[in-house]
Amino acid sequence: MNPKNFFAELKRRNVYKVAIAYAVVAWLLMQIASQIFPFFEIPNWAVRLVVLLLVIGFPVALILAWAFELTPEGIKRTEEIEPGRQSRNRVWVYVIVIAGAISVSLFFFGRHTSSKLSGNVELPAKSIAVLPFESLSEDKANAYFADGIQDEILARLSKIADLKVISRTSTQKYKSAPSNLREIAQQLDVSNILEGNVQRSADQVRITVQLINAANDSHLWAETYGREKNDISSVGTKNSQAYDAYLRALAVYREYDYDTLQRASQALEQAVRLDPDFAAAWALLAKIQALTYFEGYDKTEASRIAARKASETALRLQPELAEAQMAKGFYEYWIVGDYDAGRRTLEQLRSRWPNNADIVETLGYIALRQGRWEQGREYLDDAIGLNPRDLFLRNQAASARVYVRDFPAALRTIDQALAIWPDDADLIGLKAEVYQALGQLDQADALLSHLQPRANDVNAVGPIYDQARLRRAPTTAIILLRTLTNPQNSSPPMLHASYHLWLGELERLSGNINEARTSFTQAREGLEKELKQQPHNRFLVSLLARTLAGLGERESALREADHAVELLPSAKDARAGPQYEAIRARIQARFGDGNRAIPALKHLLNIPYSSEGGPPLTPALLRLDPDFDQLRSDPRFQELCKDKKP
Questions:
Q1: Domains of the chain, each with CATH number or no CATH
Q2: What is the mean pLDDT of the chain?
Q3: Residue 126 Rama label (left phi>0; alpha psi -120 to 50; beta)
Q4: How far from the centroid of its chain's Cα atoms is residue 208's Cα?
Q5: Mean pLDDT score, 376-404
Q6: For 427-441, what is each residue's pLDDT tens digit?
Q7: Of 38, 75, 30, 79, whose CA–CA distance to 57 is shortest?
Q8: How far from chain centre, in Å, is Cα 49?
Q9: Is there a contact between 561 and 542 (Cβ–Cβ < 8 Å)?
């Protein structure tokens, strides 16, 4: 081979780049070994072993670089790639180098050390939290870029089985480069903190990262990377604008409210328009569209089809991409409702992505829906270990105890969360629901009297409504609901209809029959309008059933209640299915049909389940709830109202 051609081939095959990167990382590891090992009295032979392994690995790395190339389609032999077609992906190189350096550093550091903070709290040595990267860009609109880079690094670190990595949901609430690293490490149960900043200006991007041992504030590793903006792209795309849109979606989508999901979806649709072969963007788009459908924001057939197309496209482009497999699992669970398939997909993926809290959390929800109650709680507790500052997850872990009526455990879990978020309305509302289920209305009053919920705080408004009914003192709650149903308070149609329904119930309880009829009619009009677009939305159907019952239309109400049960039978969903049976039993009870209501209530008292309208039925709730007033003289019902002896 001509020497000039040989050196050109070395360049084409990225051998130079690998050699330089290997030398940098090897030097870093040798510095760590020589400087840190003696401090912890690790034998000198361990230092020599590290050097020897690095020397042996150098020619191996060069041979692999010569023979193989990383492409958007995966690893290929270099001969299979046309000259000039090599990927110009750059930021992924930085991300992988950063992740690799961190993991190797922690591997050696963690084998021989453990971190103790003040108070002798011992933390796992091989554990890390990646704090929000600071954006140093003058243009504040570029802040999303730093968030996206942080998310990319987290995604790669979380796939390392021997390293505990805290989810971004828990870390995003902290400042960049905070002064209280020890406190943060203790809150997140980690020994190491990764900080960083990103500066993006004109055609340049600079990324700086540093790894810190939180116990003694020592810097284990630091590096700075720079590159032209047009060279910035990720695995799976060569289009820098597509990658930019992808980062914008990564930066915002985890808020999970409707507006945020819409903004993330729009950014990802732009990304896949710019690069139709961008598998990671298709995968994230599929996940967001499936979540939008599952949460009831858009249960139209068009939404379902769009999510399926995005998931199938991601899998077609890169079948082994972990993000594509995760999107498939979420589609199977959230949209198809095939819990067995979703469970298989996510359990297989967990072995490849062990620190992904979303996977562990979702496996918990699937377990609960399949009636595997203990395993579901264990999954949720494991997810909290990876995501300790996720308020929603803590709420769900407490709710899982409520479903099985383990109220003491539920209160302990809620109190642990309230120690972190003492003023959270959802947690306070959930704690009040537990006291309501126990018949302890004074304790519930003490909690709810301080709440001033807004229109979207449905998990706080609901317990206030329930308390008004159980106390049979609706005046204050009526004032609240009239405020929340004011047209000036914009809220999703389903929530608006729910508030009109609740208002009608309380107005009826107070004796204002005409006002109640007006509220029920407004709820009915809103629900029927939404059901034209979402005819299979079981929650909307159940709301309509309750609304028709409020209007006194017995047969229509029971027909819709039966329809809701058919849409999600308990045999298919042990967690959510029984709540629709409970709604049907309530309607039967209101119309005095004890022969059908009482056997259903007896069954419901003996099974775990969730309820959108509060805790599962208990004897105390049967004694207090006005829905059951027509049954009170029936000895069979009186027997159900007795508390079971432990």
A1: 1-87 (no CATH), 88-232 (3.40.50.10610), 240-353 (1.25.40.10), 420-640 (1.25.40.10)
A2: 85
A3: beta
A4: 28
A5: 96
A6: 999 999 999 999 999
A7: 30
A8: 42
A9: yes
Q: What is the DSSP string of 95-134?
A: HHHHHHHHHHHHHHHHHS--EEETTTEEE-SSEEEEPPPE
User: Nearest CA to 231 among 200, 209, 208, 210?
Assistant: 200
SS3 content of the chain, % helix, strand, coil (to 5): 65, 10, 30
pLDDT band at 479 (very low <50, low <70, confident <90, very high): very high
Its pTM stands at 0.79
Cβ contact 278:244 at 8 Å: no
Over the stretch 187-200, which tens digit does the pLDDT of each residue have? 999 999 988 888 87
CA distances from 310 to 59, 272, 288, 380 (A): 42, 10, 10, 28
> Which residues on adjacent β-strands are paired with residue 225?
207
* Rounded Cα–Cα distance for residues 161 and 493 (Å): 44
* pLDDT tens column, 565-594: 999 999 999 999 999 999 999 999 999 999
Q: Which region among 33-37, 168-172, 343-347, 472-476 has the lowest average model confidence (pLDDT)? A: 33-37
Type of residue at 64: L
Give the DSSP letter string of 551-600: TT-HHHHHHHHHHHHHHS-TTT-TTTHHHHHHHHHHHHHHTT-HHHHHHH
Rounded mean pLDDT of 106-115? Answer: 52
What distance in Å separates the CA atoms of residue 615 and residue 609, rounded to the nearest whole number?
A: 8
- 454 three-state secondary structure: coil
pLDDT at 87: 44
Which of 534, 438, 463 is CA-nearest to residue 492? Answer: 534
Report the DSSP pairing between strands 192-201 and 134-135.
parallel
Nearest to 165 by CA among 146, 190, 187: 190
Dihedral sign from CA coordinates of 548, 552, 556, 561: positive
What residues contact residue 626 under an 8 Å CB cut-off, 6+ apart? 469, 472, 509
| 481-533 confidence digits (pLDDT tens) | 999 998 776 778 888 999 999 999 999 999 999 999 999 999 999 999 999 98
165 forms beta bridges with 128
pLDDT of residue 384: 96
Q: What is the pLDDT of residue 198?
A: 85
What is the 3-state secondary structure of 499-536? HHHHHHHHHHHCCCHHHHHHHHHHHHHHHHHHHHHCCC
Per the structure block, which two tokens stand in for 600?
A: 């259903």
Q: Taking a C-beta distance cutoff of 8 angstroms, is the pair 573, 564 a contact?
A: no
Residues 6+ apart with CB under 8 A from 194: 102, 128, 129, 130, 131, 153, 209, 210, 211, 212
Structure tokens at 533: 């677009």
User: At 124, is the pLDDT very low, low, confident or very high (cuts 50, 70, 90)?
Assistant: confident
Assign residue 90 a region: left if phi > 0, alpha if psi is -120 to 50, beta otherwise? alpha
355: its two tokens = 């620190």
Which one, of 164, 209, 189, 220, lies nearest residue 37 by Cα? Answer: 220
Quick: pLDDT tens for 66-76.
565 655 555 55
- Tell me the residue length of the chain: 646
Closest among 485, 465, 484 to 475, alpha carbons compared: 465
Four-CA torsion 539, 544, 545, 546, nearest 10 degrees: 90
User: Where are any strands of DSSP class E within 231-341?
Assistant: none
Nearest to residue 234, comparing CAs of 166, 153, 167, 158? 153
- Find the Cα–Cα–Cα–Cα dihedral 524, 530, 534, 537, rounded to 10°: -50
